[in-house]
């Protein structure tokens, strides 16, 4: 009756051999193709280095004014703009400016890569039910897999550093933009599409001039979620050498520095609130504009 009290698991020797064969195969693949993979990601590495240097080497008043100006033009809300200004001033005052710039740099680049890859995939999914049925389970796995697990194959391929951290962040953060682009385009009113067809629009003109503008508020919600998920992985990515606000948090956990961890954790929360409020306000403005234009 052992089978009744203990689940009939695979034989331990066979299971160990299976794990070894998978690990061995992946290591062999990384040894053979590692340089090719590194060369493929070189442009992203250069983009990340340039972005970080720009944010760190530009005098802080210019960066502060730039962030506040973006907050104002995106939200047109003095409350959000003032909150942005106060948060960035407090971050700088408590000597976390450089690490915050590094975190914003990797978040901006990973969000940019996610948008460039995610929106076309979302559009393709909206055009094909079969593709949607194939991609959706993959997105489910990507969203539910613990963030630590992404680091293992990435580190085996590229070692530790910025690019592996960026890839882990992109894999973790890209599903929302794909899902919501697909959803936004599918939700466009069929009568509007029929009207576009009646005026002789091509498939490209219909997508560019009708579907994407009407789906933009939903796409912006996807970008908002992508930014939030990218920030959520900052601390985990610090485990493989990604500099930023995550490293002091990791150091605080290892050495039980409560104040260090709390300050840097609050800085991450502050940056997250800024990007969340600004992107949400921009999405609402787009939605209001769409309702005025189309009389909804």
Describe the structure.
By secondary structure, the protein is an all-alpha fold. It has one domain: MetI-like (MetI-like fold, Orthogonal Bundle). 86% of the residues lie in helices and 0% in strands. It contains 14 helices and no strands. It starts with a helix and ends with a helix.
Descriptive labels:
14 helices, single chain, 296 residues
Which term fits the overall shape? globular
Based on CA atoms alone, the radius of gyration comes out at 23 Å
Q: What ranges have pLDDT less than 50 throughout 5 or more consecutive residues?
A: none
Overall domain count: 1
Level of helix content? Answer: over 70%
**Quaternary structure classification:** single chain
Order of helices and strands: HHHHHHHHHHHHHH
Structural class: mainly alpha
Q: Mean pLDDT, rounded to whole units? A: 84
How many strands? 0
How far apart lie the N and C ends? 67 Å
The CATH fourth-level homologous superfamily: MetI-like
Strand content is under 5%
In the CATH scheme, what's the topology name?
MetI-like fold
Q: Architecture, CATH level 2?
A: Orthogonal Bundle
Number of helices: 14
CATH secondary-structure class = Mainly Alpha
The major sheet is characterized as:
none
InterPro entries: MetI-like, MetI-like_sf, Rhodanese-like_dom
GO molecular function, one term: amine transmembrane transporter activity
GO cellular component, one term: ATP-binding cassette (ABC) transporter complex
Subcellular location: Cell membrane
